[in-house]
Amino acid sequence: MNSETNTTTQVDTFERNEITEGIIWKQLLIFFFPILIGTFFQQLYNTIDTIIVGQFVGKEALASVGSSSAQIVALVVGFFTGLSSGASVVIAQFFGAKNSQAANKGLHNAYGISLVGGVIFSILGFLLTPAMLKLMQTPNEILSGSILYLRIYFIGLTFVFIYNMGASILRATGDSKTPLRYLIFCCITNIILDILFVVGFHWDVFGVALATLISQCFSAFLVTNKLIRSNGILKLSLGEIRFDKNILKHQLKLGIPTGFESILFAITNIAIQSAVNTFGTDTTAAWSIYGKLDAMFWMVSTAFGISITTFVGQNYGAGKFDRIRKSTRVCLLMDFFVSLGLVLFLVFTREYLFKLFTSDQHVMEIGSQMMILILPWYIVYIFIEVLAGTLRGIGDVIVPVIITLCGICFLRIFWLIGVLNFAPSLSAIIFSYPITWVSTAIIFIFYYLYKMKKRAL
Asked: Could you give the angle at the alpha carbon of 93 between the alpha carbons of 88 and 99, nearest 5°?
């Protein structure tokens, strides 16, 4: 941590911090469940959109909302989520070190990043939407709907950034319940507006996009209002939003590599989506639905990753390295058993789950085969998520990003290029996932063990 930021006044009146002093498994679960439920409701934003257009409009509208559009949204939001993780780790470390003044500077820096980033990405996204969709070989029959959905989404992107940053900051201080309450409220709002706009007004893709935009405005307002009215250690003042050079440098140092990693992840997924698009609208729709169903796993994995990052960040700030090792082991075990249960559930209920989205038999058959091929391998990914989260918490982001980029992104691209030239098939595309996950997980395990051994010395 930058020595110049440590000269600020220390606060002696902090309450007992359960994250740095409580029972590890209990505190991880207390922190994990609100994040998991919150991630679930956040995923519902787009999933409800997909279900409603799939049932009441058609598979073309379903593909417009959930295929190429979803991958582009993931690229932009993923980058900013990675960037915000740097800001939240810094705040968590200051919070764990009981440095109130520096933590508040970090808060106002973070909001500055959200506002500036939101405006820039909104403008660029709105202008570049048609070109991005065409580059992904989006089928012509869903192109206009995808452009409409994406452009409306980009109009409200600043609100998405503000909510994600605000929620990340609250979680960094150990408050994972408040973002959850706000997200549930806004998700319910989104569902009501979806039904009103699509079923009632017959606005189709436009109605779905507008409902999402309005809901995101509410979520940004609620989390910002919470920080403004806070009586705790962190308190937001809109007039004080500005950049502190030293803290901004530290936040960007941790956040940019993770954000860059998210971009390359998204680009890799876009490459896969482009390959899938070449198999036609039915395959594109099946892949879109599959993406909503396997989100159950990613919700759990992401929740564990966020939990361990914040947990480790605060303990790192407090200088408690034994708790870092123990919490990582506990988190891996919990993630393993929960993920195993989810994989079994998804495999055995896949046909019933697909019927929630579509009645097209061919689409269901394609999607069911996708799930059989890839789901069993998800267990391997827990090592990547948890160990990367631990390393982020201690401020080590460069090497994990390099491992992820080489082991997943680059290797997956090379696989796609080779396979599509010699044996183009959907199963060949899908197998790029387990191959890259296994190789990356092995490297992460060895690097984490090396890092912990070095820390012990």
From this structure: 110
